[in-house]
Amino acid sequence: MAERGALAEGLRAYRLIAGMWIRSSMTYRTSFVVTVLGNLTVTGLDFVGILLMFSQVDSLGGWSLPEVAFLYGLSVTSFGIADLALGSMDVLGARMRDGSFDTLLVRPAPVLAQVGADRFALRRLGRITQGAVVLGWALASVDVEWSASKVLLVPVMVVSGAAIFSAVFVAGAAFQIYAQDAAEVQNAFTYGGTTLLQYPPTVFGKDLVRGVTFMLPLAFVNWVPATYVLGRPYPVGLPGWAVFASPLVAVACCALAGLAWRTGLRSYRSTGS
């Protein structure tokens, strides 16, 4: 009951802080629209790079353009949702260095909600929109015999993937509490992770695929369940039920990230600023 109350309090605080930043960003609506379109254009350059590659080859690691677009759309959409919700977590190190993190600790609101909603930026909708457009095209173009389980698995992948990336954001922020200045390390696993997942696992070495599957399970964002949808074998041996395990992996990642965050907060020592 206490945990449920804390969760409700955190969501309420997050909603209030995010709402404040949304109202602020909508004050200048033309600037907001231009910023969203600019973000949409910049993030779209990643897929333009993939299109340029396919202008020279027929397949990438044995995967066709619609299949790679399927991976791309899942990765970018899932990451975009997590980035919209918790993208400000990577500035935690800067907050600790300038002493402003101490201010959050004395406010009557959960610290995680405050950090996550800080500078909430609707411009990040551009990434989600771009990823969803590519995903929609891929679903219409990919050669798949659709079944009920495959259709249901697509939204499950998006939601589970967003949860997994959110857990990585929170775990990275917890690491920053210890390292003080580790934003680039965190970005290597968040932004770097979504870039990695945009390409088929067959283009990478098996050691890397094993690491992304068993150590930092980003593969469950799209690689593992997508092989079931597309009818392809996974490069690393997994039990058959693993293709449906993304929600369980997401729950486990969120639980571990929450534990890391609480441990980090308990170990934090003020800068004295």
From TrEMBL:
One protein family per Pfam: ABC2_membrane_6
InterPro entries reported for this sequence: ABC-2_transporter-like
Spans through the membrane: 32-57, 69-87, 128-146, 152-175, 208-229, 241-261
Protein origin, superkingdom: Bacteria
Keywords: Membrane, Transmembrane, Transmembrane helix
UniProt name for this protein: ABC transporter permease
Source organism per UniProt: Streptomyces iakyrus
